[in-house]
């Protein structure tokens, strides 16, 4: 029997995609990119197809398309849940797939070995980007919501995060050929480094080298690493605004470095930096900047 289709609140979708709730409301009001499902007595909820449309909107606006045109394309381009999009992008996985439900059951039982096995199988079968965007992130966001609402389940969240991180960090390291394509770092005091692990793994999958400095990178340490390595792009992740404000993004861009920022902490993108809306977009932009 098929399980219930996963649905998300606006706040959960904003965190999942790394955009502000204000942006989400604006896209709903102006372009009709809002939630389509409603639970009786509750606010509307976003379905998997709604999230697919929003991801397409982020991809197109990130490529420079005007928001109105991007929204029109996204509304006509999102596939039904579980069906792959035509073209060369990552293969889609249904957000309520058997694979996703299996991972969630293993997490609920605190079965760390099985979680690691299932996460590894997801990545091997579908690739890092599709596994991350269609299964792992929706699972982590929904779990985070339940922890916040019920005050229980932190142990599941920690064990699942550790299992996913272990799989992503086990990816083969791509060799550097000439200039390092990407240097990845969390903002000072930012501890949510899993998205950077996903980006490093997705780049390695394409034989693109990166160096991941991980969590809580002091501003001075990031400046020193950029000076030493002179990477083709610098990716800075921040989940909260205070952490984002402590990162030396403006200084790095003023020195001519290509800086990309990701996470919900960037309410305002620093001048000359570029905001990333998804893992697939991050990979595409790094490749573009390095002409790979």
Task: Explain the overall architecture.
With 292 residues, this protein is α/β, with parallel strands linked by helices. Helix content is 53%, strand content 8%. It has 13 helices and seven strands. The chain has helices spanning 10-17, 21-31, 48-62, 67-77, 98-108, 112-126, 128-150, 154-169, 194-205, 219-229, 241-245, 249-254, 279-289, and strands spanning 37-38, 44-45, 182-186, 210-212, 234-237, 259-262, 274-275. The strands form two sheets. The chain has a five-stranded parallel β-sheet with strand order 4-3-5-6-7, with helices on both faces. Strands 1-2 form a two-stranded antiparallel sheet.
Strand content: 5-15%
Helicity level: 40-55%
Low-confidence stretches: 78-95
Mean pLDDT: 83
Q: Please state how the strands of the largest beta sheet are arranged side by side.
A: 4-3-5-6-7
User: Could you tell me the number of beta strands?
Assistant: 7
Order of helices and strands: HHEEHHHHHHEHEHEHHEEH
Could you say which structural class the secondary elements and strand pairing correspond to? Answer: alpha/beta
Largest sheet: 5 strands, parallel
Any idea what the shape is? globular
Give the radius of gyration: 18 Å
């Amino acid at each position: 029997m098929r399980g219930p289709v996963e649905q998300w609140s606006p706040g959960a979708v904003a965190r999942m995609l790394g955009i502000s709730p204000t942006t989400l409301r604006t896209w709903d009001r102006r372009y009709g990119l809002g939630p389509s499902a409603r639970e009786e007595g509750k606010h509307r909820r976003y379905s998997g197809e709604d999230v697919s449309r929003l991801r397409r909107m982020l991809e197109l606006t990130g490529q420079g398309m005007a928001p109105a045109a991007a929204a029109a394309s996204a509304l006509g381009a999102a596939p039904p849940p579980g069906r792959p999009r035509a073209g060369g992008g990552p293969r889609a996985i249904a957000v309520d797939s058997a694979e996703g439900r299996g991972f969630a059951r293993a997490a609920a039982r605190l079965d760390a070995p099985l979680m690691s096995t299932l996460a590894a199988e997801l990545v091997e079968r579908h690739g890092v980007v599709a596994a991350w965007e269609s299964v792992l992130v929706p699972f982590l966001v929904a779990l985070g919501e339940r922890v916040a609402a019920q005050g229980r389940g932190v142990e599941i969240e920690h064990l699942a995060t550790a299992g996913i991180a272990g799989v992503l960090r086990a990816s083969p390291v791509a060799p550097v050929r000439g200039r390092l394509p990407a240097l990845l770092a969390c903002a000072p005091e930012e501890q949510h480094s899993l998205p950077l692990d996903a980006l490093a793994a997705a780049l390695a999958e394409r034989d693109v080298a990166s160096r991941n400095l991980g969590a809580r990178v002091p501003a001075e340490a990031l400046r020193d690493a950029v000076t030493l390595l002179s990477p083709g792009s610098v990716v800075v992740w921040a989940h909260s605004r205070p952490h984002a404000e402590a990162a030396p993004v403006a200084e790095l861009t003023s020195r001519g470095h290509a800086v990309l920022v990701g996470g919900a902490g960037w309410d305002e993108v620093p001048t000359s930096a570029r905001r990333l809306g998804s893992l697939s977009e991050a990979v595409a932009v790094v490749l573009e900047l390095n002409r790979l």
